[in-house]
Backbone:
């Protein structure tokens, strides 16, 4: 029945949805909080009660008093909301297909296998801290929880890596190799001490001496949008507009980050551009929705803000949440029906919460 109802929503035009979303929000009042990630499309982002990166939104979810937490983001974010909220609260993802292809590049079976193989070379429980980017499934956060590990986001990866190295000499970092490498490099770790673990090969395709020497073992995952950015894009743009400041997200390649004037999370990018002098020009290496929003927002200050790649590409999974799906879940709630609830099994949630809480306590 709910599926039929959704089919009728899909045909609505965006303008009709906007008005009805506002009405549904009004009816649901304090029972509802909508969390919106910076990467969401404008038509949806505009309805968020709280906007932020996943760190900020995880904190909002943990503090929220609302009965229903509707997450305009992707699956792992709604899982985090479920894990950190109280049992009687309900976490909802308007479109269940909203995932993260990078998060899917690591799964529990492959991480367990890597852990066992590493254990044949090292005594893993004493020497390696597993650290997962928040862009990962709840069972991987639980893996980190039970092995003394931790979660990080792109806002706090440096502080979390510091914490990890205070405890054990090495880190197994998944699923994004770039965030791990770029953060390690800013801490002065030589590139040769950060090896890539190819999860499709025995022992990650590495020789024993490489594993023994490594400080960070980087999972071979990546974000399909951020890997589009190339140093050539920066060079070409600077040739035309030499006054440009370049700012990139650390999910971009090492080479792109090295060529950038600033590197940081979405929160950092937003803050840096907001605080920049008027009439400055920016080349930004992160998801297109955010870049377009910043361009609109700061146009009146004469700030000229450009997407780094000449090929315009949105994150197709972040793009999944549209006004039609948001309206559908909200109007179902108005009728007293919960659809698209995200529930993490209790045993997984308990261990995942350990790893998340360690992160929240660090930064
Ligand atoms: O931390 C996040 O939410 C992601 C995925 C990127 C960022 O920098 O906000």
Residues:
């Amino acid at each position: 029945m709910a599926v039929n109802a959704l089919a009728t929503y899909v045909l609505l035009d965006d303008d009709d949805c906007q008005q009805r979303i506002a009405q549904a929000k009004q009816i649901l009042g304090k029972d509802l909080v909508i969390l919106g990630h910076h990467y969401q499309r404008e038509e949806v982002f505009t309805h968020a009660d709280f906007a932020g990166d996943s760190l900020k939104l995880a904190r909002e979810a943990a503090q929220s008093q609302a009965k229903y937490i509707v997450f305009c983001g992707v699956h792992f974010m709604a899982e985090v909301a479920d894990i950190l909220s109280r049992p009687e609260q309900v976490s909802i993802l308007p479109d269940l297909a909203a995932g993260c292809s990078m998060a899917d590049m690591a799964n529990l079976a492959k991480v367990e296998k890597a852990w066992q193989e590493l254990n044949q070379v090292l005594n893993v429980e004493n020497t390696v801290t597993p650290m997962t980017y928040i862009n990962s499934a709840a069972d991987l956060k639980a893996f980190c929880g039970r092995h003394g590990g931790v979660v990080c986001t792109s806002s706090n990866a440096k502080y979390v890596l510091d914490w990890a190295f205070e405890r054990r000499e090495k880190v197994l970092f998944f699923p994004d190799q770039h965030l791990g490498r770029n953060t390690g490099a800013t801490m002065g770790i030589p590139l040769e001490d950060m090896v890539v673990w190819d999860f499709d090969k025995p022992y990650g395709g590495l020789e024993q001496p490489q594993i023994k020497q490594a400080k960070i073992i980087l999972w071979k995952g990546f974000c399909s949008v951020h890997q589009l950015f190339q140093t050539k894009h920066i060079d070409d743009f600077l040739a035309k507009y030499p006054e440009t400041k370049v700012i990139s997200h650390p999910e971009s390649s090492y080479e792109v980050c090295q060529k950038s004037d600033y590197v940081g999370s979405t929160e950092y990018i937003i803050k840096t551009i907001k605080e920049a002098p008027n009439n400055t020009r920016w080349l930004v290496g992160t998801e297109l929705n955010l870049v377009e929003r910043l361009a609109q927002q700061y146009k009146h200050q004469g700030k000229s803000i450009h997407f780094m790649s000449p090929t315009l590409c949105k994150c197709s999974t972040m793009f999944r949440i549209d006004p039609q799906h948001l309206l559908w879940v909200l109007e179902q709630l108005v009728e007293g029906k919960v659809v698209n609830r995200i529930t993490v099994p209790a045993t997984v949630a308990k261990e995942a919460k350990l790893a998340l809480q360690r992160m929240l306590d660090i930064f």
About this structure: The mean pLDDT is 96. The radius of gyration is 21 Å.
